[in-house]
User: Which sequence fits this backbone?
């Protein structure tokens, strides 16, 4: 038994089980026969085991340096440390698809364990098996991770150096995949609900699944931002690169759904919109992969162009057609009759949905406009960060505004006492903005300060309300924490407000300068004084490193580096970031004297509040986890929700 | 009608992306060639082996207006494209040297490596040295190798991006030769 | 000693650029302008972010032009003249790229219109449609 044999066997079996499962699930639905459903359910676990076997086979091949496997020869080298070897399965296309397939089988397993009526259960399984068929089909045909080489080399090329520069690269892709794949379950639920025309009940269950995927997506994106900031050496965390955008679109649509789902649960409205958000979010995840792998648009993420582009395009079109086709039926059959007042919870949620969907639209248009312009007008144009920033700023401000006021407003119509809170909130918003302006901040940054304080107050008011209501009912004030959904969402909202503040300030007040220092020369910039003590080189086995030794007045010795990898023809900067609560100090070695080590070119980037964005990211993940944390049955039944 | 709108949407998306896959997103038209602009002027040091024949420095305007000029930007680190086209250019230069001037602009390179490259392919047409790549920016170059064809009036007529093959070179030369 | 070893290796590796002199000092304004320009050889990076030779040279050109007293607009025009409007990361609000600014606003307006309907009272559904819906809810799907 060789790894390649086991791997191919695993992939083939997973494909066979998925195909069979798809057939069984479809039969169960169309024949209305429960035995087929049982059969389909029985195939979920074998498919998972087969996928797991294939994945472990790839790890096995990597750990035993089996260079007869083409994937190992291309992406692994004997010099790799153990952790790099272990994460190499998702360092390139074929392995990533394998990981994707494995996670898909895992989600299919979890979804198949939830109780559903047999009609929808069959359709959910059919959709999930169908997705598995696609992934394992791709692996079995055009992008096999276990292709073998007739003449295996003695050593391989190693993974892309960018991916082994930081341990975060081990985490970010997995989180992203968990998020992307997680959105397949809401998609399956939506398709099933539309298929059997149960337009109401699916929302509750789907919201739970979407929240799981949302949590992973959020964590994955923040991890990616952090990695980009710490590793890529450009001092930014978000570049509005097409592939970043493509993963931002499902996030926005999922966020919209998480909010409008509440409206449907309470007011029964918004049915068609909810289906649209969920189906399009899933389609967008496939689209993102298509963009990454087809080279259709220029992007830093456009990895090696492989043969999978057309396959992913076909899959995307199929998913979109299925979603839109069913959606057009829903649209014909469903008409929302509810009338909303602007000053109500549903009114705020609806406006929020408008902003999220609108933002997604802006991102879609900006990302694909160059392609469209070239197709229709033959013109080469670029749409980049300045465009997205200009349009996103007002949308983001609108979201932050609604986020504060929304949870305060009651359903249907405002009660008189709510107005007092509203005036209070608006006063804080105005005051905070004014304070910012007086401190000399720009209007945007001042507004961000105002919105942050305003949201802080809104959260405080909500917590107070909840605690007071419990104390009045003779409960402990801490019992407020038992309302997981409320507390968790407040944590997430706080984190979003904090993130907003961080984004506003880091985008507005970023100082970036470059200077060449000779040994012993000092430079004072951005409130820090540094002196170049020298330049030295280190041999680290798989790479060379050049270090500039800087003595700073505030942070002691700082050593930004350049890494030289044999497989790269230009060095990779390894910045040194010093976080402080106020500003981030980002030291980069740009260039150095190759003859005598007499001088070094250094770039200093000072960005405010970036540290708090990472804190916000952690809080978002924790808040989501808190919402999802299983609640005891008794508490759920009590359903205390005073606000 | 409204019920079938989604099919149109799917078809349009499919068409757009399918078309997008067939083309190379990196391919950019040259502003100079499109508008037939006069070739931007430059003066650059000549690489040592060519100094005997061409002098210490090379000024483009001294050579415009007599013969068409084929301007080739290259670098020794540009593998494999520059290595593929070097023999093609040398062969064409030997054939056309009375009727056109070939000029190699070594871009963002180290002198020693540029010399080694020149020796490896026995390049006999003049080579100038632009370690920072300033001239490349003036020509709107977005990546080595690129070849510009300048006619007798000193206007840029065509630009070829990527390694050039004999047939393409021949085609563009016909355009600029009288 | 180690340094020499490294140098030998660097000389062997095909390494992109080696400036003869140390690069010039770059002020924050240089980066502000470079961020709005696309790096021509990169896969979607700005001239401020990229470390490619062309981007380095572009930053140098920007610094020199600023020193000559050129304005931001003049510097951007300098690059547009050479590379076309493709080099601008902020699409100009005219010509082909006018639409990228118009379409989102148009889309947002349409979306807003669709949502605005929720804030207006509607005619009630005809009773037979409601009955039909009730009936369907009770029936198993077909």
Assistant:
């Amino acid at each position: 038994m060789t790894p390649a044999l086991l791997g191919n066997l695993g992939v083939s079996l997973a494909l066979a089980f998925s195909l069979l499962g798809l057939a069984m699930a479809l039969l169960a639905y169309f024949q209305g026969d429960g035995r087929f459903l049982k059969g389909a359910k029985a195939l979920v676990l074998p498919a998972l085991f087969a996928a797991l076997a294939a994945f472990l086979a790839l790890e096995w091949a990597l750990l035993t340096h089996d260079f007869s496997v083409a994937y190992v020869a291309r992406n692994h080298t004997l010099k790799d440390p153990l952790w790099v070897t272990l994460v190499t399965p998702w360092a390139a296309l074929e392995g990533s698809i394998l990981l994707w397939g494995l996670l898909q089988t895992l989600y299919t397993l979890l979804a198949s364990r939830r109780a559903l009526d047999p009609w929808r259960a069959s359709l959910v399984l059919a959709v999930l098996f169908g997705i598995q068929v696609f992934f394992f089909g791709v692996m079995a045909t055009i992008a096999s991770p276990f292709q073998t080489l007739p003449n295996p080399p003695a050593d391989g090329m190693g993974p892309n150096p960018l991916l082994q520069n930081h341990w975060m690269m081990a985490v970010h892709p997995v989180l992203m995949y968990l998020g992307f794949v997680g959105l397949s379950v809401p998609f399956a639920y939506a398709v099933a609900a539309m298929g059997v025309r149960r337009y109401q009940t699916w929302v509750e269950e789907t919201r739970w699944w979407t929240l799981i995927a949302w949590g992973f997506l959020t964590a994955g994106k923040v991890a990616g931002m952090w990695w980009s900031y710490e590793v890529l050496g450009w001092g930014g965390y978000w570049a509005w690169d097409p592939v970043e955008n493509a993963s931002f679109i499902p996030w926005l649509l999922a966020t919209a759904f998480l909010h409008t789902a509440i409206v449907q649960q309470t007011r029964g409205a918004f049915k068609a919109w909810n289906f649209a958000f969920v189906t399009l979010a899933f389609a967008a995840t496939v689209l993102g992969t298509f963009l990454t792998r087809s080279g259709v648009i220029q992007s830093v993420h456009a990895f090696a162009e492989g043969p999978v582009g057309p396959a992913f395009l076909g899959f995307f079109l199929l998913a979109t057609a299925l979603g839109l086709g069913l959606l057009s039926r829903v649209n014909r059959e469903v008409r929302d009759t509810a009338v909303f007042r602007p000053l109500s919870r549903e009114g705020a949620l609806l406006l929020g949905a408008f902003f999220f969907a609108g933002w997604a639209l802006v991102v879609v248009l900006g990302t694909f406009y160059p392609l469209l312009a070239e197709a229709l007008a033959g013109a080469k144009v670029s749409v980049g960060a300045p465009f997205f920033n200009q349009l996103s700023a007002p949308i983001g401000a609108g979201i932050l505004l609604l986020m504060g006021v929304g949870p305060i407003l009651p359903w249907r119509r405002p009660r008189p006492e709510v107005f007092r809170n509203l005036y209070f909130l608006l006063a804080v918003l105005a005051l905070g903005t004014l304070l910012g302006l007086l401190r000399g901040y720009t209007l945007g940054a001042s507004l961000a300060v105002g919105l942050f304080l305003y949201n802080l107050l809104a959260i405080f008011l909500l917590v107070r309300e909840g605690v007071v209501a419990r104390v009045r009912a003779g409960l402990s004030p801490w019992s407020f924490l038992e309302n997981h959904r409320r507390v968790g969402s407040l944590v997430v909202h706080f984190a979003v407000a904090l993130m907003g503040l961080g984004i506003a300030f880091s985008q507005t007040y970023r100082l970036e300068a470059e200077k060449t220092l000779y040994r012993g020369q000092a430079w004072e910039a951005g409130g820090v004084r540094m002196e170049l003590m020298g330049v030295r080189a280190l041999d680290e086995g798989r790479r060379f490193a050049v270090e500039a030794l800087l003595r700073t007045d505030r942070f002691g010795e700082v050593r930004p580096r350049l890494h030289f990898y044999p497989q790269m023809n230009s060095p990779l900067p390894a910045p040194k970031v010093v976080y402080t609560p106020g500003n981030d100090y980002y030291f980069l070695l740009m260039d150095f004297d190759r003859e005598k080590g007499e001088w070094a070119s250094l770039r200093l980037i000072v960005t405010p509040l970036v540290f708090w964005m990472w804190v916000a990211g952690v809080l978002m993940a924790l808040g989501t986890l808190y919402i999802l944390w299983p609640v005891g049955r008794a508490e759920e039944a009590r359903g205390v929700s005073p606000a | 009608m409204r019920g079938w709108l989604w099919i149109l949407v799917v078809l349009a998306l499919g068409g757009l992306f399918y078309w997008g896959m067939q083309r190379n997103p990196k391919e950019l038209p040259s502003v100079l060639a499109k508008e037939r602009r006069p070739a931007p002027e430059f003066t650059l040091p000549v690489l040592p082996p060519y100094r005997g024949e061409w002098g210490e420095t090379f000024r483009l305007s001294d050579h415009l207006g007599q013969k068409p000029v084929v301007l080739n930007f290259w670098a020794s680190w540009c593998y494999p494209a520059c290595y593929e086209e070097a023999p093609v250019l040398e062969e064409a230069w030997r054939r056309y040297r009375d009727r056109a001037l070939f000029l190699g602009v070594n871009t963002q390179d180290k002198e020693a490596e540029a010399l080694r490259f020149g020796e490896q392919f026995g390049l006999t047409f003049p080579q100038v040295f632009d370690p920072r790549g300033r001239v490349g920016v003036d020509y709107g170059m977005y990546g080595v190798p690129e070849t510009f064809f300048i006619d007798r009036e000193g206007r840029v007529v065509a630009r070829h991006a990527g390694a050039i093959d004999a047939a393409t070179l021949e085609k563009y030369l016909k355009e600029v030769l009288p | 000693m180690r340094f020499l070893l490294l140098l030998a290796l660097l000389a062997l590796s095909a390494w992109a650029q080696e400036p003869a002199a140390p690069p010039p000092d770059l002020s924050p304004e240089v980066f502000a302008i470079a961020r709005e320009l696309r790096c021509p050889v990169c896969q979607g990076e700005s001239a401020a972010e990229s470390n490619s030779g062309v981007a380095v040279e572009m930053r140098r050109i920007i610094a020199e032009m600023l020193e000559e007293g050129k304005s931001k607009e003049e510097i951007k025009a300098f690059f547009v003249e050479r590379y076309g409007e493709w080099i601008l990361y902020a699409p100009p609000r005219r010509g082909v790229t006018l639409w990228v600014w118009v379409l989102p606003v148009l889309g947002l307006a349409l979306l807003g219109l669709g949502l605005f309907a929720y804030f207006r009272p509607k005619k009630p559904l005809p009773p037979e449609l409601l009955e039909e819906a009730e009936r369907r809810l009770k029936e198993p799907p077909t």
Observations:
- Confidence is low (pLDDT under 50) at residues 634-643 of chain A.
- Residues 163 and 169 of chain A are 6 Å apart (CA to CA).
